[in-house]
Amino acid sequence: MNVPTLCASFPAHRVLVRLDPAPFGLTELSSVRLDASIVQNGTLCVAGSVAGTSGGGWTECTLRPTASYVLTSRWTVGSTMLLKVAGAQGFPAVVEADVILSCLAYVDAEWTLAAMVTTVESSVRMACARRIDTNWTVESGLHITASTVPSVVLHGRYADSTISLGLGIETAPTRVRIAAMIPTSAIFTLGCSLEYTAQLGMSASLSLCFVAW
Questions:
Q1: What CATH code is carried by the domain that includes residue 102?
Q2: In terms of CB atoms within 10 Å, which end of the chain has fewer, N or C?
Q3: In a domain, 107, yes or no
Q4: How far apart are CA 47 and CA 59, in angstroms?
């Protein structure tokens, strides 16, 4: 499910490094992101990410500490603290904070439901995913914010032991994303993605996931 506040989609004891080189052709927007699971057992997961970019006199850093808890075999709840510090050279830094609350419900072996609420931004995300077989999963969702029109999200994923492929489409803003992850060994997994956003253009990202311990 596309609900970032839940650790269920992030494997235990792994670190993910992601590089976004010159999105939309702008080198000053290049960024690096680091995701890591810190603690994970049968019921509790504590994870976090840090992302940063610097260029053109602008510096930005975002922290996302996350925790999720398994209530029952069907219900998982989670929360994320979003902290962003940004500023231009010669000006005071600006600090923004937000809290994201989420819930994941496993209806049965095929159906999963998810919801996420962002408190300060005043947005709601709802999603429904269906596992077609051992390899294919499809997902549909709705993103509603107080300041923009609702956005519909469609996503499909194929995964086996050799490759994972994903295709996502979003209506507002119009966005299409293709992603792939390929395990190169028992420790490392390489990933790449290509995304088109209307009125902005193309952007790409590279990622490396490895077992930390």
A1: 2.40.160.60
A2: C
A3: yes
A4: 24
3-state secondary structure of 190: strand
Count: domains in the chain: 1
Identify whether 1 is part of a domain: no
- Residue 102 tokens read as 């989420």
Q: What's the pLDDT at 212?
A: 63
Would residue 2 count as lying in a domain?
no
- Residue 175 near residue 192 (C-beta atoms within 8 A): no
Task: Give the model's pLDDT for residue 6.
Answer: 44
99 beta partners: 81
pLDDT tens digits, residue range 5-29? 444 444 556 788 889 888 888 887 8
Evaluate whether residue 35 is within a structural domain: yes
User: Domain residues for 51?
Assistant: 7-211
What's the angle, vertex CA 84, arms to CA 82 and CA 90, rounded to 5? 170
Q: Are 46 and 35 in contact (CB under 8 A)?
A: no
* Average pLDDT of span 95-108: 92
Residue 111 C-beta-side C-alpha neighbours within 13 Å: 4
